[in-house]
């Protein structure tokens, strides 16, 4: 990167702040569709304004029915950069105004500052610098701006049904250096009729993608003393609270929550409570079913080994499994689990094994999933981005695999490139911010990537 471009981008910092402040002023979280506004009026207006700014920079713009839009520099685009203008709702706890950018010290606060309006602005100005300085490109580059990333990315599905994406796409909506592998994901639900005179009810977990921090059960016909003794012997680190209420005993288990893609970071209250119940003299068939769950999805096991689905490869790491929901209401026992699996496996293969295992312990299964996403780490595209990251940031960079999904999960050839660096920008929380210098740093990074890929 020459001094000339570097200085040009640095000089645009006040303009970048101004543009970002303007985009933050739209509360563009997803709302009910209105005429011509598939995700609500503010998201549509935000997209229109961003495209207007891009047009004023001299890019060729296209609004694709207010689902998404694009700004193109040069012909035959080889590189697409995918960012989003929708945000999650403000939520509570803000000490600043969420939709009025506040610059304080080296930070700019506002909903979307980091996720993902700030990175989008950096792309706009990286492209502007290349254009204004007349830097020749052999192939074109386009910024694609979506408006529904936070609620399922239907914006990009729509865009792809109408427009062709370039062969290389990155999204600045995750972390540096480069995320090239996103594990596959399975949601497996299971259920069975079950009656019990001793187990009255059981509830653990509410969302499938979270390791539950709380679970509770009500039993009858077993003394609190017996349950307390079993709890001590259980070897669980979840905290059990055991209370006698009349004829019944209420057991509450408290563990540690975690995202289901990183189950090792949590302490699963649900499987802890199942472990305790499996040691109690319950009646059949509840006893067999609880023991079956304990044996197949044991407390503290997160690699799916006992369920017969453990898998790992060097590039994407190990399969993870989190049993995240279990309910029993006296008639029916049902639950759900979240599985993230490496590129060496498939939805079909895992489903078959898991279905068999669940049926062996008496449950019918309902399994669905998404295959892994992978762009080889030795591909030109990934290697170029890693080299850009290294040269601009001075830090070594390796491609990384994650259990979660990014904006490019459904896009062939897509990777994530930026913009988080380990600093807590309070994404999705109160007082989200971006460092104002990061706007410049990211623009420099993107300009270099565009020049190396398209120049
Ligand atoms: Zn995002």
What is the topology?
Elements: H1 3-11, H2 13-24, H3 41-56, E1 60-64, E2 68-73, E3 77-84, E4 102-104, E5 107-109, H4 117-132, E6 140-146, H5 154-162, E7 168-171, E8 174-175, E9 178-182, E10 184-193, E11 199-204, E12 210-211, E13 214-220, H6 224-233, E14 239-245, E15 248-254, E16 258-259, H7 269-278, H8 286-296, E17 312-313, E18 317-318, E19 320-328, E20 332-341, H9 347-360, E21 364-370, E22 373-374, H10 380-393, E23 399-402, E24 414-416, E25 419-420, E26 433-435, H11 436-454
Parallel strand pairs: 3-6, 3-7, 7-24, 8-25, 9-23
Antiparallel strand pairs: 1-2, 2-6, 4-5, 5-26, 9-22, 10-20, 10-21, 11-13, 11-19, 12-16, 13-15, 14-15, 17-18, 19-20
The structure holds zinc ion (ZN).
Residues 84, 115-116, 149, 173 line the site of zinc ion.
Strand order of the main beta sheet, please?
14-15-13-11-19-20-10-21
Termini separation comes to 12 Å
Bound compounds, each kind once, are: zinc ion
**Helix-strand makeup class:** alpha+beta
Tally of discrete structural domains = 2
CATH H level, superfamily name of the largest domain: Zn peptidases
Shape: elongated
């Amino acid at each position: 990167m020459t001094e000339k471009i570097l200085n040009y981008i640095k000089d645009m910092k006040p303009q970048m702040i101004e543009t970002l402040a303007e985009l933050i002023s739209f509360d563009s979280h997803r709302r009910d569709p209105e005429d011509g506004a598939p995700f609500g009026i503010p998201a549509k207006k935000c997209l229109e304004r961003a495209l207007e700014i891009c047009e004023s920079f001299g890019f060729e713009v296209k609004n694709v029915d207010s689902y998404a839009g694009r700004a193109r520099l040069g012909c035959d685009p080889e590189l697409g950069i995918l960012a989003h203008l929708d945000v999650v709702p403000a939520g509570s706890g803000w000490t600043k105004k969420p939709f009025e950018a506040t610059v304080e010290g080296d930070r700019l606060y506002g909903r979307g500052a980091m996720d993902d309006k700030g990175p989008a602005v950096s792309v706009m100005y990286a492209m502007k610098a290349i254009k204004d300085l007349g830097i020749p490109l052999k192939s074109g580059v386009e910024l694609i701006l979506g408006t529904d990333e936070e609620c399922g990315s239907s914006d990009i599905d729509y865009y792809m049904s109408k427009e062709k994406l370039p062969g290389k796409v990155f999204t600045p909506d995750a972390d540096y250096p480069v995320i090239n592998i996103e594990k596959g994901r399975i949601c497996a639900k299971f259920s069975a009729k079950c009656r019990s005179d001793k187990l009255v009810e059981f509830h653990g977990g509410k969302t499938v993608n979270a390791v539950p921090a709380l679970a509770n059960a009500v039993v009858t016909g077993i003394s609190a003393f017996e349950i307390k003794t079993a709890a001590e012997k259980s070897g669980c680190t979840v905290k059990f609270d055991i209370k006698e209420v009349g004829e019944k005993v209420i057991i509450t288990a408290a563990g540690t929550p975690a995202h289901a893609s990183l189950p090792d970071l949590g302490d699963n209250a649900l499987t802890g409570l199942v472990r305790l119940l499996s040691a109690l003299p319950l009646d059949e068939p509840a006893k067999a079913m609880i023991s079956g769950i304990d044996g197949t999805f044991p407390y503290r096991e997160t690699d799916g080994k006992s369920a017969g689905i453990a898998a790992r490869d060097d590039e994407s790491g190990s399969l993870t499994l989190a049993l995240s929901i279990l309910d029993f209401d006296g008639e029916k026992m049902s639950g759900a689990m979240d599985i993230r699996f490496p590129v060496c496996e498939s939805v079909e293969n895992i489903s078959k094994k898991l279905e068999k295992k669940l049926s062996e312990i008496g449950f019918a299964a309902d399994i669905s999933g998404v295959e892994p996403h992978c762009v080889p780490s030795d591909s030109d595209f990934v290697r170029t981005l890693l080299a850009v990251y290294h040269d601009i940031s001075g830090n070594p960079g390796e491609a990384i695999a994650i259990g979660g999904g990014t904006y490019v999960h459904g896009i062939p050839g897509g990777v994530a490139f930026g913009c988080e660096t380990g600093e807590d920008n309070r994404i999705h929380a109160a007082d989200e911010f971006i460092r104002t210098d990061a706007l410049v740093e990211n623009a420099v990074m993107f300009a270099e990537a565009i020049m190396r890929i398209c120049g």
